[in-house]
Structures are given as structure tokens and as C-alpha cells.
Specification:
Elements lengths: L6 H5 L11 H21 L1 H10 L3 H26 L9 H13 L3 E4 L8 E6 L8 E6 L4 E3 L2 E3 L7 H18 L5 E6 L9 H7 L8 E5 L11 E3 L4 E10 L14 H15 L8 E8 L10 E10 L2 H22 L2 E10 L2 E3 L1 H13 L20 H5 L2 E4 L11 H7 L2 H23 L1 H33 L8
Parallel strand pairs: 3-6, 3-7, 7-14
Antiparallel strand pairs: 1-2, 2-6, 4-5, 8-13, 9-11, 9-12, 10-11
The structure holds zinc ion (ZN).
The site of zinc ion has 6 residues, from loops.
């Protein structure tokens, strides 16, 4: 999922340097943006990246060439193989079987089903020089999209793990031949396109713990990098199921029952009634996927499933609290009970100038096509935002399709020269970045410093938002995690 739906909205705003979309956010962020600006001037990531990429380094050149050769040798064929055998999220069993057998044959130890997700895996390799060095992480996805005529790889996720394996192979070769200590982990992350958010679940289960850096590739309609800061591609989202439990009875003796469907309908209407009390950027969409089994039985169970979205997470917490209260009110009014299951959360992610500028410098150096020099809004390197808050990382995405995301055109470009060339470049760029991270202590320090500072500034920004909203929504809202 990579959406540019807010491009129009943001292009209308005067504050080009921000990822904040509402007037409230922009006002609250003013101080914080100035501090981000000062931080970036101090670190100067583009100058640093130019120095790193411009350096003559035979070992690095050999490693990046190795990644390209590894792609050509069999990873391109593996990418096409997965591309022609699409499986939707949570059902990527054949892809996982194939990918883990390839990783096992390359010396990785494999754990499938991590975080109780059947199609999630971690592949781990430790250098024979020991584990003392950094732990380098690669994220690989493999889920396809659902269309009326079946599954298809319209977001090119088929290429992601083969790219990661090409990178891992190049690093293994370098680390073994040069006796460099460290660990490589390939994280197989399922179901990017559907909820609940797999990476959040894996992160909460501690799967990414101990990883120093995470790198991920993705399809792209241009070669661009993010601006340093925090933000999100689309909106902050809570995915919430409200499960109403009543008591079944025959409708002819309905006084013995408690009607869960009545509670759900009452709740659904209450949420519609709330819409005008929310700020205009709010987006709330819901369905009633369960509402009973037969007309002559009082429904004992009904489910309402909502996506609640807002540009910032503080106001989102306020909306969610009011909607939760509406559900409790509907339960009280009908003598039923409600269980609130917040099964998915997407939040602002952190984008680091140190790593995004390094990616971009490599992309230009290697002649990546369709370079867009304008830095994009920061959105982190993975779609849930949570992982980016704890582990520094970067998303590498060289132009790989002439057609937009989630289309048959993007799928066919992924299986032909346009995609193949991009994926090979992705593999080489990712190898270069991880080599630099592994061998360059001052880069590691700059990455750690920038990540720590931006995380602190994100906390400050949320505190500012809480203060600004307080007269309207009350104090302390949105400080949940
Ligand atoms: Zn995607």
C-alpha cells in the first residue's frame, strides 16, 4: 500500500516542509518543525551521504555487484515465480514455503509462524566471525491483491523477498570472506494489504527486538525519497470491532431474549449522529458483518466493524473514545453487552534523513530512472508506523512501474524489464546501505542520534497537540501507549 491520496491536499498548504495537514496540526508543529530543521542542519544528511557514496571502496563495489549478480542468477526468476502464483494476505503458504527453503539452503536458520501468524517468518544467519557486530534486518512481503477475477500482484510484493535474499547473499559473502562479525535477519511479513497489521503484531510479540536497522523495498512510480521527520502516507487509523452479545430466544417469546442486532443498529446510528461533532478531516467507515442467523430468532450476536481515521493520533484517540462510549450506550440501552476489540492501529512513522538521503544518493549514482528531486512527506519505511518508532530504517523504492499502484499494469511491469531493472537496483542500493551501516561507525552514530531526537520530537509534537485540543476534547486524551 502506497497511496498518494493526500498529495492534492498537501500541495494546497503553505507549509511545504511539514507533513501536517490540518491547521491545528500545523500550528502545533511549528516549534517542532524548527527543531527538526535545526537537527537536519547539524547532521546534514545529504552532504554526509555524498561523502559516503563518493568514497572509493573496492569491497563495497564488489558487494553491490554481487547483489546484482545474485538477482540475475535466480532471484529474478523467483520473483517472477511468486508473481505468477499470487496468494492473498494470510494465505501466502506456497510463497513462504518456497522462500524459507531458499533461505535455508543459504545457511539461514528458519522460524515459521512467529507471533502466532502462520505465514510470518524470521530467517537468521550469524557470521562465522561471531554475532558481536550489528544485526541487519531486511523486510520481505509476499501478499497479493484481491480482484474480482482472482488474486494478482498489482503492488509487486512478489519481488520484495527475492530482493532481500539477493542482498542477504551479498552480505553473507562479504562478511564471510572478510571475517566481519554480525547477524543478518530476513523478516517475512504477511498481509500488508489487509488488516490486522501484521508488522504491529510481530513488533508487539518482540520479533524485531535486537535489530539495529531495517531495510525494505517497495514498488514505485518514481524514484523519490522522504523528508526527515514523522508522518504517515494516508491517515492515522484505528480498526475496531464492536461485538454485541445478547441472549437468544424465539421471536414469539422475544421477551426472553436480548437483541444484539438492535444494539448494533442503535450504535451504528449513534455514530452517524456523532459525525457533525467531529472535525471535518475525520473519516469513519463501518459495516455490520454479523447481525443474526434467522428472522425468527432474537440475534444473540452482532458485530460492527469500523475504520476510524484522522490526520493526527491525538484527535483520533478522542474520536475513538466517543465512538466507544456510543457502543457502551447502545449496549446499556438494549440490555446487551459489548466487547471492544481494537484489532489494528496505524500511526505516524519516522523517516530518517541519514538513511533516506543515503538511499537517494545511491539511486542517483546508479542511474535509477525517473528521479524526483522533491523530498516527499515523511511516512516511515513500513505502513504501520510502530516499528519505525523503535528501529531506524529505510524504504528503498526505485521507479518500477509506468502504471500506478494496485493495477494490472503494475503487475505486468513487475514481470518484465521495467520491474526487473528496478528490483536489481533496489538490491544493489540496499546492499550498499547495509554495508555502510555495518562498516561505518560514524554513520551508525548519526542514525542513532537522529532517530532518538526525532522520536523525542514526535513525543513533543503529540504533547503540543494535546494542549491545543484540550479545551475541546479534555486533557490527557491520546496518551495511550
Ligand atoms: Zn504494498
Amino acid at each position: 500500500m502506497r497511496t498518494l491520496s493526500l498529495t492534492l491536499l498537501t500541495s494546497l498548504l503553505p507549509v511545504v516542509a511539514s507533513s501536517q495537514t490540518t491547521p491545528t496540526e500545523i500550528a502545533a508543529a511549528a516549534d517542532v518543525l524548527a527543531q527538526i530543521e535545526a537537527l537536519e542542519q547539524r547532521i546534514d544528511p545529504s552532504a554526509m551521504s555524498a561523502r559516503i557514496v563518493g568514497r572509493n571502496d573496492a569491497a563495497r563495489s564488489a558487494l553491490m555487484a554481487y547483489a546484482g549478480t545474485a538477482w540475475d542468477a535466480d532471484m529474478q526468476a523467483l520473483s517472477d515465480h511468486i508473481g505468477r502464483d499470487p496468494e492473498v494476505g494470510w494465505a501466502e503458504f506456497r510463497a513462504v514455503d518456497t522462500l524459507v527453503s531458499v533461505l535455508r539452503s543459504r545457511g539461514f536458520s528458519i522460524e515459521v509462524g512467529v507471533a502466532d501468524l502462520p505465514t510470518a517468518f524470521v530467517a537468521t544467519w550469524v557470521s562465522s566471525a561471531g554475532p558481536a557486530g550489528p544485526t541487519l534486518g531486511l523486510i520481505g512481503e509476499y501478499d497479493a491483491l484481491r480482484d474480482i477475477d482472482g488474486a494478482f500482484h498489482g503492488d509487486q510484493h512478489n519481488a520484495q523477498t527475492p530482493i532481500a535474499i539477493a542482498v542477504a547473499s551479498a552480505l553473507q559473502h562479504y562478511m564471510e570472506s572478510s571475517r566481519v562479525a554480525g547477524t543478518i535477519k530476513v523478516f517475512g511479513t504477511p498481509a500488508e494489504e489487509v488488516g490486522p497489521p501484521a508488522k504491529t503484531i510481530m513488533h508487539d510479540a518482540g520479533v524485531f527486538d535486537g535489530t539495529d536497522i531495517l531495510v525494505r523495498s517497495h514498488s514505485s512510480v518514481e524514484t523519490a525519497r522522504g523528508r526527515a521527520g514523522f508522518g504517515v502516507c494516508c491517515l492515522n487509523i484505528n480498526e475496531v470491532k464492536y461485538v454485541f452479545s445478547g441472549r437468544p430466544a424465539h421471536q414469539l417469546t422475544s421477551w426472553n431474549g436480548r437483541n444484539a442486532l438492535s444494539a448494533a443498529v442503535r450504535f451504528y446510528s449513534s455514530v452517524d449522529g456523532l459525525r457533525s461533532t467531529f472535525r471535518p478531516e475525520a473519516s469513519i467507515q463501518g459495516v455490520i458483518p454479523e447481525g443474526g442467523v434467522a428472522p425468527n430468532v432474537v440475534p444473540a450476536r452482532a458485530v460492527v466493524d469500523y475504520y476510524i481515521r484522522y490526520p493526527d493520533e491525538v484527535y483520533l484517540a478522542h474520536m475513538t473514545r466517543m465512538i466507544d462510549d456510543a457502543a457502551r450506550g447502545a449496549a446499556l440501552a438494549t440490555g446487551t453487552e459489548v466487547t471492544i476489540d481494537r484489532y489494528g492501529e496505524y500511526r505516524d512513522g519516522i523517516t530518517l534523513g541519514t538513511l533516506d538521503e543515503l538511499y537517494f544518493a545511491y539511486a542517483k549514482e546508479l542511474g535509477a530512472p525517473r528521479i524526483n528531486e522533491v523530498p516527499q512527506r515523511p511516512a516511515g519505511y513500513e505502513e504501520t508506523g510502530w516499528v519505525t518508532r523503535d528501529i531506524p530504517g529505510v524504504g528503498v523504492s526505485v521507479f518500477s512501474s509506468r502504471e500506478t499502484y494496485h493495477t494490472k499494469g503494475m503487475e505486468s511491469d513487475g514481470l518484465s524489464e521495467v520491474g526487473h531493472r528496478a528490483f536489481r537496483l533496489d538490491a544493489q542500493i540496499m546492499s550498499g546501505i547495509l554495508y555502510d551501516y555495518l562498516t561505518n561507525a560514524s554513520l551508525r552514530e548519526a542514525v542513532a542520534e537522529e532517530h532518538k531526537e526525532l522520536k523525542g520530537l514526535m513525543g513533543e509534537y503529540h504533547q503540543r497537540l494535546r494542549e491545543v485540543y484540550a479545551p475541546e476534547i479534555g486533557p490527557g486524551v491520546g496518551a495511550e501507549r
